[in-house]
Amino acid sequence: MISFDGVEVTYPNGYQALKGISLDIPKGQFVVIVGLSGAGKSTLIRTINNLVVPSKGEVRVGGRSITRARGAELRKMRAGIGMIFQTYNLVKRTTVLRNVLSGRLGSAHPMASLLGLFPKSDLLMAHACLQRVGIPEKAYVRADALSGGQQQRVGIARALAQQPQVMLADEPVASLDPPTANAVMGDLKRITREDGITTLVNLHFIDMARDYADRIIGMRAGEVVFDGTPDEATDQV
Ligand code: ADP
Ligand code: ADP
């Protein structure tokens, strides 16, 4: 579903953040990327939606090069890739429902959200996404009135509303206390599995990776230093 072919990233200041990554990630796999801060995890994830453009090599999603895609084709490919962020990136002063609906706006006119013009099917879908992340009753609450765990559930619901084939999560639970972090990771895994979504999650800590990953990829200084199952990771990472 996702393949990296000799992907190198050199930032404008000359720093080489990825040093030739080649990986194949099959459809439906739940992959956790672990490594210390600065290892290149965020950079790797961002090449998948072409937010970071490789200096060499390419990334293919569903068999098509997103690295080479431009214009309408790039927008269409990005619409199939949900993103979840460490600090949620919600619009704080508006409702949870509107935040979730913003995941549906790829093809709609930019003014639609301001005017409250959503197709009824999108509204129903947004409510269904909130149901799936366990906070259906929060639809009309302001996003910034929610706890951290609830805000990240909104982040997941917003990504789900895109009906993505791929989900990318950059340190999604790093701002949460351990019990909440576990609950959110459990929900993310369950929901992406139910929908057959191929998922990549960056985590700081190997313990949590072992509990949830189908596959663990360990990174250090821009290279893959481990690639295996949680069982294989026990002694090596
Ligand atoms: P994290 O490690 O959580 O990804 P960082 O603080 O490393 O957060 O990065 C925050 C932002 O700053 C990112 O957009 C990243 O691309 C950018 N950034 C990180 N390091 C540098 C750097 N040395 N020069 C310029 N931008 C950087
Ligand atoms: P991680 O997610 O594992 O913390 P990152 O991918 O954020 O790692 O960063 C990898 C390295 O690239 C870090 O040393 C970081 O400072 C550097 N970096 C990230 N973004 C930029 C940028 N925009 N410009 C220069 N260096 C960057």
Structure description:
This is Phosphonate ABC transporter ATP-binding protein. One of its GO terms (molecular function) is ATP binding. The chain is of the alpha/beta class and 237 residues long. The protein has nine helices and ten strands. The strands form two sheets. The protein has a six-stranded mixed beta sheet with strand order 6-7-8-3-9-10, with helices on both faces. Helix 5 packs across helix 6 and helix 6 (148-160) packs parallel to helix 7. It binds adenosine-5'-diphosphate (2 copies).
Output the keywords.
237 residues, 6-stranded mixed β-sheet, 9 helices, 10 strands, binds adenosine-5'-diphosphate
Outline the biggest β-sheet. 6 strands, mixed
What low-confidence regions span 5 or more consecutive residues with pLDDT below 50?
Answer: none
Which shape, going by the Cα principal axes? globular
| Helix content, binned percent | 25-40%
Amino- and carboxy-terminal Cα gap: 26 Å
Helix/strand class: alpha/beta
- How many helices does DSSP assign? 9
How much beta, percentage-wise? 15-25%
Helices and strands, with pairings:
Elements: E1 2-10, E2 16-25, E3 30-34, H1 41-48, E4 56-61, E5 64-65, H2 71-79, E6 81-84, H3 96-101, H4 112-115, H5 120-132, H6 148-160, E7 166-170, H7 178-194, E8 198-203, H8 206-212, E9 215-220, E10 223-228, H9 230-233
Parallel strand pairs: 3-8, 3-9, 6-7, 7-8
Antiparallel strand pairs: 1-2, 1-4, 4-5, 9-10
The structure holds adenosine-5'-diphosphate (2 copies).
